[in-house]
Design goal:
alpha/beta, binds iron/sulfur cluster, 19% strand, Alpha-Beta Plaits, 7 helices, globular, 4Fe4S_Fe-S-bd, binds flavin mononucleotide, Rossmann fold, 2 domains
Length: 265
Amino acid sequence: MNTAIYYFTGTGNSLKVAKDLSQYIEDATVIQIRQEKMSHQLSTNAKAIGFVVPTIFKGIPKLVSQFINHLEVKHQNPYIFAVSTHGDHNGMGIVCKQFKELLAKKSLPLSAYFAIQMPHNSPVKDHLTTNQEKERLFKEETIQIPVIAESIRNRQLISHTRNKFKSYLETLIYSYHAISTSKKPIDRGFYADEKCISCSICSKVCPAQNIEMADNKPKWKLENCQFCLACIQWCPKEAIQYNKETIGIERYHHPEIKVTELIID
Ligand SMILES: Cc1cc2nc3c(=O)[nH]c(=O)nc-3n(C[C@H](O)[C@H](O)[C@H](O)COP(=O)(O)O)c2cc1C
Ligand code: SF4
Ligand code: SF4
């Protein structure tokens, strides 16, 4: 394998980007980041290594940091790139900075960083993306992908700098969420309502193994939630709510990604 593209996703945007990139890069393999993999030895011989992840509360999901810490990179001089998908205009937050710091701890470079805006996947009124905007973003993604892939094939070095004040504020927001969720688990707000048919899709799709089925209903474990919202967004009955905020709000997942692509049997 020449290129390993690791992705984390809740609702398929990052998987779509990873898959599309792999179409333009010879001998590229797309690999999901999931909790289950953390118990195995993780290593790669790939010459180029990519990470495609969503921005969540301005930064990267904790599981992605743990995965990178765990991953043994065997190539002596790898080309490493990161792509963040984000829902807000210019909403990539501190993702690039975090990747640089994580990789530097392993004496690895972040060779290039890219960001692609995709539909926002948070089912709250303020964040909903209109259908027209979704179409525009999907089209834009198909234009960006070949350009990014060409940079990767040419091993271009692409740095990204963020306004220092903005970066400082975003670091504060990210840290605030990290601290508050360590004190009070964020998944305390989830519950399944009477529409639940006990199909267990929510439990299977959770990349963090944070949902178990108890008495045929999902039970959030309150220990490892990444707040990716895969559970809420892939439930076929729209039976999962987060407090009262999500009641009556339309759900989203990338239209070209199937739930089966995210599930390990
Ligand atoms: C809890 C939560 C927090 C988010 N925070 C941000 C953010 O800080 N900036 C941003 O641009 N998008 C944010 N988003 C939107 C996602 O980054 C975006 O929709 C992404 O493409 C989802 O990718 P996925 O489908 O691969 O999970 C957030 C989404 C969720 C669910
Ligand atoms: S995915 Fe929805 S319907 Fe299926 S078990 Fe979970 S909450 Fe119930
Ligand atoms: S419980 Fe839901 S939001 Fe939390 S990590 Fe699992 S799928 Fe994502």
